[in-house]
Amino acid sequence: MYSGELTRTPPEKRASRHIGLIVGMNRYQDSTFQPLQFAENDARALAQWLVNNKGGKWSPPDVQLVQGQHATRELIESLITQICLHKAEEGDSILLYFAGHAFIDERSGEGYLALTNSRYQDPSTCLSLHAFSQHVLTQSRATQILCIFDCFQTGPIWSMHRMSSFDSRPLLSSSVLSILQSYPNRLFMCSCRGNEQAPESGTRGLSPFIHQMILGLCGPAVDQATGGVTLSRLHAYLFGALGEQQRPQLFGQQEVPFSIVGDIPEVTSTRQATAANFAAGFLPGTESPSSSTHLKKSGFMGAASSTATAPPVQAVSPSTSGHFLSSALDQQREQQGQQMVAQAQQLFQAQNYGEAFNLVEQVLQNMPNNLPALILKGQLLGTAGRYTEAQQVIEHILQLDPNNAMGWSMQAVVSSNLGQHQQALTAVERSLELDAQNPETYAIKNNIMSNLAVAQTQTPEQSKSKLRSDPEPRKASQGFILGLALSILGIVAGLIGFGLMTFIASIPYIGLFVICISIGILCVNAARGAFHYGLVLLVETILVSVVLAGILGAMYKVGQASLIHQINLHPSLFMPVLVLVAWLIVSAAVPPVLALGGFVGGFPSRRRQKHA
């Protein structure tokens, strides 16, 4: 698929270059891939910004834009081979951007990018990420390669492998992730353009991802000191500016910041040594099975074997050999730990705290004194509110490195959350002594000072009053429920009295007595409740009165003619209806007046109880 021997040129001093291949397509020959709206606009906008003198200022000949029906598999593979394997030299930085469909093969589980002439049922017509990673990422002489996959997730396999609604990880098989871990400065940033759960969306003719990316590149992600933009700053901006669907996921290891705008940092090339170490499992004379398979498939087994051969035994004394093996083991442990901590930090930024914590624990099992892992563990414990455990981790950090400014800042935050404000102030002052330029530490100090001021100005009597006022919301809630129950009881009693007067007309006094009791319940409840519970019962009484007034108004507006007709037919209904109307008027008008009086009269008593 990717062919061509690399012709190594003697290293010489030359200017580093930004090289870009930008691909976007809206329509496909295979109807399995639904038409897109913004992919070609996104590719065009990004390419134009990169070469604009007020944008990225990349050299126009070094940026290639391929759109629409021109983006065939054959052309894109040819351009990737040309750019990554032939054009790029050490010191160069490559950006590959793809906007289109991506799917996972149902048989192999490998991820593929669909080009305009690709067929879903024939992965050989698509761009294989495994082959791309194996043959291009590992062999390119470029210092840095960033691949941005802004893809529509097509096919049923996505939903079976996703950890969340828009997870891009299934596109990168375990073999691809392994290569990214093995080769630093090979980075994938993935965003979900859409899937079966969410359609493609747009803002001003662009997808939200590219729209926010260009906005970030124009200002918010720019380093004001240097005027440059690194991938880390851009990713942090996008992570906060975008919603869950388009929020980017970053995969791979950065030895140096990836520069999108500005000078490319100089890096001493260690790619051949890195490849040999991973192929040999970091030990001379041994070979990792997975790496061996990878190299055989790539057709570079001969070169790898020669670099992985152990030095002759006779050339190394036993003591030197033992020291060499020990150093190799330490190097293996350290590099693996760095990779796992970096991955855990990415998970932490993605708020995937569980997986991040598991990775950190794995690192600390082998290297209990790994400072970056300990710092991240303390942050994770603090985020989870497990301050006592975080305190123990921080003490360990400060034992290992008493001058660790981050450790003292973490100590200040945890102490403040535990209510130990004076200890927190001492810790944050120590952090500022060690790193006086950290704005986050100043923010922590200001917060601690505010908490300390509140704690110092609060008198014991105020603390006692605060503790006693805590039950107030519960008391008010109970009073509201009790008052509402009594109001309902009064209304029900009034309706029962009306019924007794209607159906036992010969003894009207019984129904009249029950109606009087209902009025008494409503009036006493209104006055007593507002006196003891204040505004809550006053509002409840007014609401009940509004309901009763509404019933009375409805009877007048809607049922007046019907009532008069029934009274004409049944004269015995005249007295019950008259009593009902009178009951509604009294029940709607009198309780609010009594409640207002109780509210005003009980104000001194309620205030004394509150401050008692």
Task: Summarize this structure as a short list of keywords or feature phrases.
single chain, 612 residues, alpha/beta, eight-stranded mixed sheet, two-stranded antiparallel sheet, 24 helices, elongated, disordered N terminus
First and last CA, distance:
84 Å
Helical amount among residues, as a percent range?
55-70%
Provide mean pLDDT, rounded. 79
Structural class, judged by helices and strands?
Answer: alpha/beta
Shape: elongated
- Describe the sheet with the most strands: 8 strands, mixed
The low-confidence parts are: 3-9, 269-329, 463-470
β-strand number: 10
Q: Write down the Rg.
A: 37 Å
Strand-residue proportion: 5-15%
Helix run count? 24
Structural summary, described in words:
The longest helix has 32 residues, at 318-349. The chain is 58% helix and 9% strand. The chain is elongated. The chain is built from 24 helices and 10 strands. It is an alpha/beta fold and 612 residues long. Mean pLDDT is 79; it is low at 3-9, 269-329 and 463-470. The strands form 2 sheets. Strands 1, 2, 3, 4, 5, 6, 7 and 9 form an 8-stranded mixed β-sheet that branches. A two-stranded antiparallel ribbon has the order 8-10. Helix 11 (318-349) packs antiparallel against helix 12 (353-366). The termini are far apart. 37% of the residues are buried. A hairpin with a 6-residue loop joins strand 3 (93-104) and strand 4 (111-113).
